[in-house]
Amino acid sequence: MLHSWRLPRRTARMRLRMRLDSRSTREPRGWRKPARVFLMAFIAVDLVGTGLLMTPLATTGPEGLTFVEAFFSATTSLAVCGLSVISVGNDLNGFGQGILLVLMQAGGMGIMTLASLLGTAMVHRFGLRMQLNVQAETRSLWVGDVRGVVSRVAIIFLTLQGITFLLITPRMWLGYDMPFGEAVYSGFFHSISAFNNAGLSLYDDSMTRFSGDAFILLPVAFAVILGGIGFPVLMELRRQFRTPRLWSLHTKLTVTTASILFVAGAIVITGLEWNNPATLGQLHWWARLTDGFFHGVMPRSGGLNVVDTGQMGDATLLVTIMLMFVGNGSAGTAGGIKVATLAVIFLVVWAEVRAQDKVHVYGRQLSPEVVRQSLSLVFLSATVVAFTTVLLVRTTEFGLMPIMFEVVSAVGVVGLSTGITPDLPPWTQTLLAILMVAGRIGPITFVTALAFRDRPRRYDLAKARPIIG
Fold it and tell me: For the whole prediction, is pTM greater than 0.85?
């Protein structure tokens, strides 16, 4: 009798457990909460920074910044973009500049940490077997080691920023007759700006006063490269730098594509501006090479400049726009569509040219989901750039090339400018600030939403082929 009473109760428990398991396999809306939480946190911090910059405590004058100026400055710092409508060194005092430093560090370290944590969250939606496969493929730490991920991010940031600071500060002090305190502060500010790919400088001419100085420009350039290459790649290179054959597919694609773009960008920009008297033409040959390399690196989201960008030729500006649109590595401080996305698009085209129905690279096959996500991200980014450019060309007095340059710089959170940003109308500056936010958190939010979406079709329709080309 007791047994007959327990059996239905156990059956009911089993049915309830099966129902819960079936619900857990679905794709609840809660999976998209990480992206929404990040957006709300970003906006909250941005508004706090805006409010602080609007107070007289942050400025050298008796009044604080206007709302548009404060909002733009806070957003460009938190989004680690670098476009500016004020003079950081003249309009802001130590407290105001400290606010920008905090926002830059929060934008760089926070974004990188969040990207890694979102990747961990996406992995957790799979079973143990899939987690083991992912761990074996990426050869990374255990996916549940959240505390270890965050601590390693902090260590990487502080170490590389500290090395950059120690390299450039003595040169500023001894080579440019700066007072020791000023040199320390300048080295501190620019090391944080460089590694976070923030693009902000204490000087109105950015890094122009250091033109041709390899002792300052090269450490800053390599800080930009390392900060933008991405935390997952840095972690893997730290462990397996001497064994490239053991690198994950993501690291191989990122390192290969980024290296090609860095070299090609430096060579092309240096060659195009070699005889331009307004940029590189008046310099010694070694200064031309140094400045050319620096400007080949900066469009990848660095944002600092050592010559007047507005004086560059249209061909150079177009090449710079393409580099800014791509950006650097994923889960780092850089913006753009990311080099891995560009690599996937190239591999898809290469496979199509060779009449291959599968995309293979480095002994692996790319999944259709990765291809669709890459195509969607590129299409949406290009659409935003195109529509915004057309709008601003029709509503402002500036030409196509300067407007497109500013728009791509904002969407790619780069920070390079032809010099027209302070002269734009306030509503246009606000629009560019919104584009910075979209460029910084848009790819993370968009790709996360795609990765968490899982709505399998219950049936297939008949195949059809429209005429292409």
Answer: no
